[in-house]
Specification:
- There is one protein chain.
- By secondary structure, this protein is mainly beta.
- Helix content is about 0%, strand content about 40%.
- The protein contains no helices and 15 strands.
- The N terminus is likely disordered.
């Protein structure tokens, strides 16, 4: 148990992926013959080709409001069910709204350290260990703006400074 009944050339076993969350090794690309746990390694001949068959998954979208922002998050993006991992799913536009922030894409990690995708791209993620749902998190950048100081008819010169929304700045 825990080993697929075929040896790799280095003498180790192919990993077992009999768990329905992770996928299954098949001996046929159409999924007609499954490798069963407990079958001896000589059941299949040397050179048998293995095909990874991954189960369908659901995509859920998370608004992912940046910490420290003073603005409320609104809206939603409808999830996509039963995504075929060999074909993937085309990502929708972001339906979340965050005033004074610009949506920059979807990411597989809330902190932005995962895979990044844009609306209209096709995503083909593997199912995480925790279940059959892949979460994509909205990524946000605060709006940058300039303030122009114009002395009008007074003394001094016209100057401008750049600021970022939700960041402290000196006037």
């Amino acid at each position: 148990e825990g080993k697929v009944p075929l040896l790799k050339p280095d003498g180790t076993y192919y990993p077992s992926v009999m768990d329905p969350v992770k996928g299954i090794w098949w001996t046929d690309p159409e999924g007609k013959m499954i490798l069963e746990p407990g079958v001896t390694s000589n059941y299949y001949t040397n050179g048998t080709r293995l095909y990874a068959v991954w189960p369908a998954y659901d995509l859920e979208f998370v608004g992912n409001k940046p910490s420290g922002t003073s603005m409320p998050l609104s809206g939603s993006t409808t999830g996509i069910g039963d995504v075929d991992p060999t074909k993937g799913a085309v990502l929708p536009p972001c339906g979340f709204k965050l005033k004074n922030y610009v949506f920059t894409g979807w990411n597989t990690k809330a902190d932005g350290s995962g895979n990044t995708y844009q609306p209209g791209e096709t995503v083909t993620e593997r199912i995480p260990e925790s279940g059959r749902t892949v979460y994509l998190y909205a990524m946000w950048e605060p709006v940058k703006y300039s303030v122009v100081y114009d002395p009008g008819e007074g003394e001094g010169t016209r100057t401008s400074r750049k600021y970022t929304f939700d960041k402290n700045g000196v006037l």
